[in-house]
Predict the structure.
Amino acid sequence: MIEYRDVYKSFDVPVLNGVSLTVEAGEILAIVGPSGGGKSVLLKTTIGLVEPDSGDVFLEDVSVVRATPAELQRVRRRVGYVFQNAALFDSMTVFENVAYGIQDDEAKKLGRAEVARRVTQVIEEVNLNPSVVLSKLPSELSGGMRKRVGLARAMVGEPEILLYDEPVTGLDPVNTAAVDQLIKAIADKRHVTSIVVTHDIEGVLRYCNRVALLEGGKLRFVGSPEVFRGSSDPLVRAFYDREAAATAAREL
Amino acid sequence: MNIITSFVRAIGRAAITTSEHAGGLGLLAWHSLVATVRGRVPFKEILAQAYAVGVQSIPLVMVTAILSGIVTSQQGGYQFTSAIPLYVLGSVVSSSIVLELGPVLTAIVFIGRVGARITAELGTMQVSEQIDALYSLGRDPVPVLAAPRIIAGTIAMPALVGIANGVGVVAGIISARLSVGLGSESFLYGARLYWHSYDLFYSMMKALAFGFVIPLIACHMGLLTRGGAEGVGRATTASVVFMIIAVLVSDAMFPPLFLN
């Protein structure tokens, strides 16, 4: 379980204004909202990449804000983070990038053959061909492939929680649908708790369990996709209609 | 009143920025030391960095050393002709190179070739979220990125300064023969006449200090980078200025501390 308790954060201007939210184990929560609404910042507070000005974030009973560096490192090992632009290490091959998701001590215990097997397995799981991509550098991959490798790297350590920061931004509709299916399949197969920050409102509503609308640093809506779609709240309505129109325009 | 207030504010801001950088550098140096002592710095990465910052810098360092040896020798010869015994040129050239030009010019080359590259590299990693990715994977960027570069710089710089000193003096000997007709025996006689073994030690102390400070500042500035490609450009420029000032200020502190 992940719990955000009254989280405030500002970078000159307020970005998060007292966000309180609980994400249950095994749940897929979508966080949607306009750009600059604080979605990615909230996601980064989950593993201490951004420290809240006040409030706290709990992973089970561990406070991310008050954790010592060693505790924070342990917390981070339980979480996989998929970055918006994949954030692959430029100087490493795909194999090295993905294998880097396994901690050194664990990799030593597993041995080279087992590490290679795990890397190959997650690469296959994200629908990439290991014999084609493993020896390539990130610069030799397409945007969609890079995102999948980023996802593979986040998964290889077998985390309990997966955090997705704009996993489909910049992808064409075919790749968007493929990544959406992948997120759902991984959550089902591995029983991981997932938080997906996205602008692809139609896509995420098809597979998430709950949706949260974050606007102006405040949560304006938290509920099921069905309630979100049918909401009569003018703010939710306006956002949903705007994003649905934008998605339709992109698909055209 | 407004001018006074603005002036005081500017001083206050400068003091805060300086303190923040000093604190950041101190922490980075401390964390790097701790990571090194605990054996958390990958040896393979130190070797790779030593090759990139050391071996690959040799050609440029040699060109700079040859030119500084030639210029020092020619200008000294021009001033000494008909005024001072020419063999003194040997001492002037070798002392200038070993005590000052070798370490400082090598440091300037190192800043341009290595320091700027480190800041741009780490800055790009920062703005493209690769540093965040390291944290998210439970890795600490200090032993993985900063410490290998700092260790490699501290090892490579004395070697580079040693090469620069040797090459610079040899260039000075050849230049003295060609420009003022001073033979190599006379040049070396002059060089030996005023030579102190301590000078070489002094030169190496400077090299060690510069070799530590340059990558330390470069890593610090790289890890502080914000704001996309423009931010990387700004951080790299600021880093180069910061490194040059640090080298020149620490160079100015060496004579009163170690030569008196």
Q: What stands out?
A: Strands of chain A lie at 2-11, 13-23, 28-32, 54-59, 62-63, 79-82, 161-165, 193-197, 210-215, 218-223. The interface with chain B takes residues 44, 47-49, 73-74, 76-77, 79-81, 83-85, 87-90, 100-101, 103, 153-154, 157 of chain A (CB under 8 Å). Chain A has two domains: 2-78+159-251, 85-156. The longest helix of chain A spans residues 173-190.
